[in-house]
Amino acid sequence: MPTSQSADTEPPPRLLRRWEIDAPEGVSRVAAGHGRRCWRADTAGGAFFLKEYAEPVRRRVLFQHTVTTALDEAGLPVLAPVPARGGRTLVTAAGRGYVLYPWVGGRGRGGLELTFGQCESLGELLGRLHAALDGLTPPVQQSLLVPTPRAADAAAAVDAMLRDVPGDGGTDFDALTGRRLRERRELLTEFAGHQPPEIEVSTVGHLHGAFHAGHLRYGGAGNVTAVLGWDGLTTGPVAGEVVRAAARLFACEDERGLDLDRVQAFVRGHRSAFPLDAGQIQSAVHREWWERLCDVAPLRHRYLGEDGTGGRGLAALVTWWSAQLDRTLDAFAAPYAAVYADVPGDSPAYG
Known about the structure:
Layout: E1 26-30, E2 38-43, E3 46-53, H1 58-73, E4 91-93, E5 96-102, H2 116-136, H3 151-163, H4 172-190, E6 204-207, E7 216-218, E8 224-227, E9 234-237, H5 238-249, H6 260-273, H7 278-294, H8 297-304, H9 316-323, H10 325-340
Antiparallel strand pairs: 1-2, 2-3, 3-5, 4-5, 6-9, 7-8
Helix pairs in contact: 2-6, 3-4, 5-6, 5-7, 6-10, 7-10
């Protein structure tokens, strides 16, 4: 193991010997999320990815390993952890946890780079993952109370931020900040009566939890070679994950909002592998829009320089989505409407 690396960036000495792999010819630090350390280990037999957990929740990590191993064995593009000597997938050293994976090649691609056929294939892949998770994991209770954010609370937070923005005499950026905050405040007032219900009937199950472009790797033919990011494994409404994934994958970084043609292809692909119904999809669209409307953390981060982004992408998308709410409800549900169109008396309705 290289000695040129500092002690705070290399894994503990002899750690990799706990796996039955060739001696590493080189170990290099890999960019990872905040507070996490990861490395690439190159050996004569191939490359590996070593992930560190500062404070691993053993039961949660091992459940994740059971799931990803089963998905890998089912032929899905999911990486199973490499068992260490003795069969353990979570190895501890100096109070920290370590997991080894095969190194995956391929490249990342943004959702807007995909053809419509690739968008449909990607949606089908998410549907196949949902179907496999449904069969491989314990049942999830069907009644899930998903707390709904309050417009009044979000408006109060915006008002508090506005008090911190200089008025006359401030910079151009201060003026822009004030304008963006007032725009959000007006939207929260205008749409205060559009809050989704607290409890909705929906198909629930285990979910990937973070299905977006940053966790997807593609091969040369445009096929997905790996779905990464399984630390976010969670439970919840399946339709919610479909809508969240589409909103993150196919959001434009300007006034165009969402690429609804790609959204429809993605939802159509998911429907082919894990059918839901139009009502569930539209309810999920309603909730995702509402949660973005009430999530002021991106504004706080973008304009006031505070940490955190709220996890829901560009704040500018909220304005477009609010103006196009009916259109997005129809667009997300269109692939389902096409299925029901030829069934008399069985056309789903939202409301």
